[in-house]
C-alpha cells in the first residue's frame, strides 16, 4: 500500500431530479482504490445505482479524486448477530445496546421520535449525547462517510471464518461502522436500511462491536436511518471532517485471533 496513489470514488443516485432539486434519494456508495482498480470500482457503483430496490434513478453522479492523506488501516469490529422475531423485540434490544454503549435513555427516546424525519436524510445525522439535539447542521444531506473500503478478497476470508453472509451490503456497513466507531468523539452508531427489501440493522460501539439485529422494520418500508451519537465536548468540526475525509482501509489479517 505504501507509495501507491489512492483515489476516492463516490456515487449518488436519485429519482425525479437531482438531490439538490428535491429528487428522491435512491442510493449512494463510496470506494477507495488504486488507479488500476478504478474501472472496477466505478462499474460496481454504477451497477449499485442502476439496480436498486428504492427505484430507478434519473440522476446519477459518479466522481473520483486523488487522496493525499496517508491511509489508516483498521481491523473490522467484532460482529455478533442477534436473532429477533419481531420489530418490537428488535427495537427494545437496540435501545439496550445503545444504553450499554453509553447513550442516555432520554437521548435514545428523543432520537426515536425523530426517526421519521431523519429518514429523509441521505447521509448520517449526528446527535449529541448530552442534549439529545441534532448537531451536524447538514439538513437533508447529512454527513456522508467516504474514503472507505475493504478489499473483497480480505472481506471474504474474514466473513467465511466468522460465518457472516458474503454480501457487499454487510461488508460496506461493517467497514463504515468500524471507521465511525474508531473516532474518539463517537459513542455509538444506530442504523437500519432505507431499502424496502432489507430489515436487518445494527448498533455499533467501540466496546460493543457491531451488533446486528435481524428485524427492525417491515419488508416494503422505505424508511431507514443512520445516527451517530457523539460527545459534543469533543471537537466536532474535526469529527465531521475526519468522517468525510480520513481515508480508511479495513484489513483483517488471517493470523488475527478475531
Ligand atoms: N455515510 C453516511 N450515511 C450513510 C452512508 C455513508 N457512507 N451510506 C448510507 N448512509 C445512510 C443514508 O441515510 C442511508 O439512507 C442510510 O444510511 C441507510 O443506508 O446485515 O444497507 O446503505 O449487517 O440502505 C445494515 C445491516 C444495512 C447490514 C444498512 O444501509 C447487516 C444499509 P443503506
Ligand atoms: Mg439504502
Automatic annotation (TrEMBL):
Pathway: Metabolic intermediate metabolism; pimeloyl-CoA biosynthesis; pimeloyl-CoA from pimelate: step 1/1
Organism name: Bacillus changyiensis
Catalytic activity: heptanedioate + ATP + CoA = 6-carboxyhexanoyl-CoA + AMP + diphosphate
Family as reported in the entry's similarity comment: Belongs to the BioW family.
Entry EC number(s): 6.2.1.14
GO molecular function: 6-carboxyhexanoate-CoA ligase activity
Keywords for the protein's UniProt record, in alphabetical order: ATP-binding, Biotin biosynthesis, Ligase, Magnesium, Nucleotide-binding
Subunit and partners: Homodimer.
Required co-factors: Mg(2+)
InterPro entries (UniProt xref): BioW (IPR005499)
Summary of the function given for this chain in its UniProt record: Catalyzes the transformation of pimelate into pimeloyl-CoA with concomitant hydrolysis of ATP to AMP.
Encoding gene, per UniProt annotation: bioW
Key word Nucleotide-binding present: yes
UniProt protein name: 6-carboxyhexanoate--CoA ligase
Amino acid at each position: 500500500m505504501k507509495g501507491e496513489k489512492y483515489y476516492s470514488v463516490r456515487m449518488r443516485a436519485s429519482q425525479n431530479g437531482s438531490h439538490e432539486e428535491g429528487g428522491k434519494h435512491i442510493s449512494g456508495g463510496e470506494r477507495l482504490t488504486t488507479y488500476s482498480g478504478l474501472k472496477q470500482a466505478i462499474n460496481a457503483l454504477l451497477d449499485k445505482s442502476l439496480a436498486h430496490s428504492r427505484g430507478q434513478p434519473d440522476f446519477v453522479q459518479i466522481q473520483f479524486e486523488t487522496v493525499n492523506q496517508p491511509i489508516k488501516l483498521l481491523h473490522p469490529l467484532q460482529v455478533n448477530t442477534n436473532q429477533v422475531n419481531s420489530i418490537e423485540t428488535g427495537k427494545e434490544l437496540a435501545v439496550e445496546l445503545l444504553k450499554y454503549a453509553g447513550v442516555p435513555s432520554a437521548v435514545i427516546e428523543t432520537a426515536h421520535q425523530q426517526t421519521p424525519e431523519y429518514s429523509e436524510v441521505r447521509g448520517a445525522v449526528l446527535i449529541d449525547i448530552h442534549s439529545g439535539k441534532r448537531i451536524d447542521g447538514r439538513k437533508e444531506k447529512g454527513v456522508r462517510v467516504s474514503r472507505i473500503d475493504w478489499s473483497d478478497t480480505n472481506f471474504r476470508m474474514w466473513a467465511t471464518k466468522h460465518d457472516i453472509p458474503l454480501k457487499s451490503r454487510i461488508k460496506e456497513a461493517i467497514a463504515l461502522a468500524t471507521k465511525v466507531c474508531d473516532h474518539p468523539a463517537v459513542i455509538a452508531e444506530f442504523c437500519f436500511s432505507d431499502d424496502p427489501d432489507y430489515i436487518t440493522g445494527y448498533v455499533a460501539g467501540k466496546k460493543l462491536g457491531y451488533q446486528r439485529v435481524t428485524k427492525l422494520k417491515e419488508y416494503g418500508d422505505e424508511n431507514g436511518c443512520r445516527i451517530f451519537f457523539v460527545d459534543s465536548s469533543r471537537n466536532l468540526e474535526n469529527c465531521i471532517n475526519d468522517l468525510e475525509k480520513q481515508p480508511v482501509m479495513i484489513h483483517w489479517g488471517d493470523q488475527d485471533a478475531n
